[in-house]
Amino acid sequence: MNTSSILLECSALACERDGRILFEKLDLSVSAGDIVQIEGPNGCGKTTFLRALTTLLPDYEGEIYWGGDCIRRVRRDYLSNLLFIGHLPGVKNTLTPRENLAFLSRLHRHTSLADIDTALAKVGLYGYEDMPGHQLSAGQLRRIALARLHLSHARVWVLDEPYTAIDKEGVANLEASFIEHANRGGCVIMTSHQAPSIKQLKTVSIQEYAPTRTYEAKQGVADESL
Question: What are the tens digits of pLDDT across the range 140-154?
Answer without folding.
Answer: 999 999 999 999 999
